[in-house]
Specification:
This protein is of the alpha/beta class and 250 residues long. Helices cover 54% and strands 7% of the residues. Strands 3-2-1-4 form a four-stranded parallel sheet, sandwiched between helices. It is globular, with a radius of gyration of 19 Å.
Length: 250
């Protein structure tokens, strides 16, 4: 039986052990206003103390509600929250690409994936800044969960890039249970997952529910339609899971 209190204790112990072993100081993470980043922020605050956690909001043609929900999380746990608006950076990049004469309809996926890549670059920039300013190494935390990872619902060079992950082995429902244990604000914890990139919910984009993905991974019965969709997503994302490296012959 899933015991959220026990899981929280295990994750916190894992973080503390790793930080002690590697002589680390703090953590930086993007706070989107969604459940995953809210739970990760709560876990690191519990493990390291609020003074060693830095959250970043990174709007990029984003609705104001995202920043408002991020503030709820920061206020709840007391960690520092800074805002770095990436809209102008995104627009400058797009303007340069437009000069090459690319057809706008061909750039949809490029535009969607540019946002998380800009955000991850920002996370690492801030991590280096705080490492220098605070006199100790700050890592970048990942916020992906097991369901997202299985179907490849992440951007290479974007949210797939981080130094430490704590939700990678938990389904969406389990993340919610952990969030309830940590008292993550309900407005954040139960929000319908949305990537803030394409104006669609996660499940609309995936064509399958997170509950179905979790059931499939656990060997439970799902509809034939859901099974085929999950297997197609997983197979289609194979290139995201491993980077092929040629090894020369001896």
């Amino acid at each position: 039986m899933f015991d959220p209190k026990k899981e929280v204790e295990g994750i916190v112990a894992f973080i503390r052990d790793y930080y002690e072993k590697c002589h680390l100081k703090g953590v930086v993470l993007g706070i989107s206003g969604g459940k995953d980043s809210g739970v990760v922020a709560a876990l690191f605050t519990k493990a390291l103390g609020k003074e060693n956690v830095v959250g970043i909001t990174m709007p990029c043609h984003s609705p104001e509600s995202c920043a408002d929900d991020a503030k709820l999380v920061a206020e709840k746990y007391g960690f520092e929250l800074i805002n770095i608006d990436l809209t102008a950076s995104f627009d400058a990049f797009e303007n340069e690409i437009a000069k090459l004469g690319a057809d706008e309809k061909d750039l949809v996926n490029s535009e969607i994936n540019l946002k998380p890549r800009l955000r991850m670059a920002t996370n690492y920039y801030v991590a280096a800044w705080y490492s220098a300013m605070k006199g100790g190494t700050y890592l970048v935390a990942g916020t992906s969960n097991k369901c997202e990872l299985y179907v490849g619902y992440f951007t290479k060079g974007g949210d797939s890039t981080y130094d430490i992950g704590v939700l990678n082995d938990y389904t969406v429902e389990e993340v919610i249970r952990i969030g309830e244990e940590l008292e993550v604000p309900p407005k954040v914890l139960y929000k319908t997952p949305n990537d803030d990139l394409s104006n669609q919910t996660d499940e609309d984009k995936l064509g399958v529910t997170y509950r179905e993905i979790a059931a499939y991974m656990n060997g439970e019965e799902v509809s034939e339609e859901a099974k085929k969709r999950i297997e197609k997503l997983h197979a289609g994302a194979a290139h995201k899971f491993h980077i092929p490296v040629y090894q020369r012959c001896a």
